[in-house]
Amino acid sequence: MSQLQNKVALITGANSGIGYATAAEFLAQGAKVIITGRKEAAIKEAVASLGNGVEGFVADQSKLQDAEALAKHVKGKIRFN
Description:
Layout: E1 8-12, H1 17-28, E2 32-37, H2 40-50, E3 54-58, H3 64-77
């Protein structure tokens, strides 16, 4: 499947559970995926497990500073037309 080819998905809390499953499905459909979570070790493990096409970013979305850093990072990755 390539329904999400040339798309970028940002999934918070994707180091386990529903977020992880969503990341895996989006990758399978051709998207590039950025996953976030609070725990660096868990993010690294999820990135290694998910494989190519995924990037991890450690961020606690309950902290404004982390949310702003994530937004800046994502803006640098995506080209808007």
